[in-house]
Amino acid sequence: MKLPQHPLQFGDTFSSPGGHFTYRVIGPCCRLFDREELPWPCCRLEWRGKEPSWRRIGKRFVVDLSSKNSPSYSVQILEQHHPGEPLVMTLYWVKLPLSLKEWWYSRRVNEPSDTALDHANSNVSLT
Fold first, then answer.
1. SS3 sequence, 65-113?
2. How do residues 11-27 score in pLDDT, each as one tens digit?
3. What is the model's pTM?
């Protein structure tokens, strides 16, 4: 079985872990949220002090949870009869090495090093 290269390229396809869906990659993306779009309420009383922490990237936020350890992609579902809008999918079963994580969430656009890609590919399987 061929191991995927991360970041996946435009047009690459992969299956969900259960094999129910097949996705076509539009491109890699960073899962950022505007303050109004945060997926969890930010009221400390409601969370009793256990709300997730957020790292600021420019004017936006990235959650300091498992989404920062895994790659996110804009994808299209291939099996649907009427393909909808592209959606952002985080591959939580893929763990990125530190150097590739820094590239993924960096403000600067740098190419990931070959050693980071080699390390990521040795630990990754999409099936």
1. CHHHCCCEEEEEECCCCCCCCCEEEECCCCCCCHHHHHHHCCCCCCCCC
2. 999 888 888 888 899 98
3. 0.59
